[in-house]
Amino acid sequence: MSGRKITYVRVEEGEWQRTQQAAARLRDVQADLPALLDGVRAAARQDAQRSIDAVTARQRDAEQAISRLSADNRRIERETGRRLAEQSARMMAAIDENAASIRADTQAALAAQEQALRSAIATERRTREREIAQLRSGLNEVLADRQRALDVARQWLADADTIRELIEALPHEFLAPGRLAPLERELATARETAASGLGEAALAGAQRAYHGLSDLRIELEEADRVWRLVHGAAREALLVVLAQIESRAVCAGIDEHGEELADVQLDVDFWSQGELTALRADLEGELRRVDDAGTPLSTAELRALVERRAPELSDRLGEIVERAGLAQLGSQLRVNIADVVVQTLVENGFELAEHTWAGEDERGSFFAKVAHPDGGEVVVDVTPSASDPSSSELRVLSYDEDAGADELRRARARDLAASLRESGLDSGVPQETEEGPAPQFRDFGAVRAGTVLPTPATPAPARTAATGGTR
After folding, report:
1. Cβ–Cβ < 8 Å for 7, 410
2. How far, in Å, CA of 149 to CA of 204, rounded?
3. How far is residue 85's CA from residue 200's CA, in Å, rounded to a whole number?
4. Is 424 left (phi over 0), alpha (psi -120 to 50) or beta?
5. What is the pLDDT of residues 321-352, one digit of tens each?
6. Residues spanned by the domain of 409
7. Higher pLDDT, 131 or 153
8. Residues facing 397 on adjacent strands
9. Both 83 and 8 in a single domain?
10. Among the four residues 151, 195, 315, 416, which has the most C-beta atoms within 10 Å?
11. Per the domain annotation, does 323 fall within a domain?
12. Domains of the chain: total
């Protein structure tokens, strides 16, 4: 009578470890990074130039506004502007240099540039404080003259309005939300005091408002430069991963020893069941977030992209490529298992009739059919395990009506197990199931078309000595 025998077949432990090590070589997506960077440099340089142009234009506008300030404030603000321009030039040169020679150590480079910028701004703030203190000490004579104090207060109010206009040109609600409103209220109060003729109080209030606004402008200039620096680094880091994805989409297949196969390509998206497409979609989503001027990411969010998200995506790419390589190797393993079984059956008087992949999909089950001169047929079905890439479920489907063939099939099963073990495959003796073989699996046209598919392999038993060859 017909029979259906099932066993699990695994690559032996040591051999599977070597196979995993071979596939792990595919995981090193950083190996070809220097060559990939050529394609990223042009975009990075364009981003850097946009930042340079924006800051330069804002500096020109600020210089025009500063020319309207009173003499002492104009001198201090111009000196501040000169130092800011020098710092900006150094920062933008660093951005441009990075764009021209993008490095793998993006995080370290970004941290060093941020630290240098913040240190320069801190030095600038201390210098301003000394100059302002000197300016205040020179106003003692003014305070003795009420009308003169009132005139000077009005000049400080006008200067404060000019600085407030410069702040309005900066993304102050994004970079320092809520900071401008209290200073505007203080400025309005000083203006009311001046209107009341209280010169000394008006001057004190106008000075406080002016210095608060001036400090806020410097803070915003610093925050804007840091934001641009980190924004460029975040975009650069994501573009590098995108280049890695494009580079690794199709690569050379490898054998079980990790050697490249000249005539075999590894289509990573195909063998990873679409994981590469999903990764690319996630990466492009992050790039859209970075490029969204309507809802810009904060400096902290951009820094997280550089320090965590981009490395996570790169690591995920490596894992996907490795899994794809293992899947392709597993596909070849299923062919090898079927070949061992077929050769054993041929030695027992059968002839190979045909073979195919279920649904013509190499990621799934491999089928082979052998025929005996007496009319009997055996279908070999090797289906991948859902839980263990080193394991496959072997189904041997015997289609014959010879009532005396039971012992022959049992002997054949023992021969199959022995042949598999001799080939370095870990297998128990196929066990007969209560249910007979489904007749539709004899129709290889249906199997090839995918209208007849095998039941997915159940999880393979654990590797223990007690399971009779499935350790």
Report:
1. no
2. 10
3. 35
4. left
5. 988 988 888 888 899 889 988 988 888 888 99
6. 3-16+329-467
7. 153
8. 4, 379
9. no
10. 416
11. no
12. 2
